[in-house]
């Protein structure tokens, strides 16, 4: 059975578009097969499915660790409402300085962060 150039081109196009459209909702390609006798027939098309965009549901969370034995001290909190995410996290760096990051993110302004350092650095002395 010979495959026509048009059919082969449609199959290649379907493979390329199938990869590039992954994760972007439903898609389909309308392929018309040619049986080399001038009689074409159309492949069935799936029904079009349209998904409406909804803002993410509001949420908030907090967590923290304070392990005096290992010196692991950190905390984080984040909340989201109306497509705007706000949060902060802090951690004690190995030199003893506390790094705190306050951030916001939304689809118009992107991700924006403000970093502050507090405390005095100390370095271990090796003997």
Structure described in brief:
It contains one helix and seven strands; from the N terminus they run αβββββββ. With 127 residues, the chain is mostly beta strands. The radius of gyration is 28 Å and the shape is elongated.
Would you mind describing this structure in some detail?
One of its GO terms (cellular component) is extracellular space. One of its GO terms (molecular function) is structural constituent of cuticle. Residues 1-22 form the signal peptide. Pfam families: Chitin_bind_4. Mean pLDDT is 75; it is low at 15-35. The chain starts with a helix and ends in a 9-residue tail after the last strand. The chain has a domain at 59-118: S-adenosyl-L-methionine-dependent methyltransferases (Single Sheet). It has one helix at 5-20; strands at residues 32-34, 40-42, 59-67, 72-81, 84-92, 98-106, 110-118. It has 1 helix and 7 strands.
């Amino acid at each position: 059975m010979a495959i026509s150039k048009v059919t082969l081109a449609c199959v290649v196009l379907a493979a390329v578009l199938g990869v590039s459209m992954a994760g972007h909702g439903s898609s389909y390609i309308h392929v018309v097969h040619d049986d080399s006798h001038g009689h074409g027939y159309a492949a069935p098309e799936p029904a079009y499915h349209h998904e409406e965009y909804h803002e993410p549901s509001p949420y908030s969370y907090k967590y923290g660790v304070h392990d005096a034995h290992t010196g692991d001290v950190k905390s984080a909190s984040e909340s989201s409402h109306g497509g705007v995410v706000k949060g902060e996290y802090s951690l004690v760096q190995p030199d003893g300085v506390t790094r705190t990051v306050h951030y916001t993110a939304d689809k118009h302004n992107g991700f924006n962060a403000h970093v502050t350092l507090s405390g005095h650095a100390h370095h271990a002395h090796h003997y």
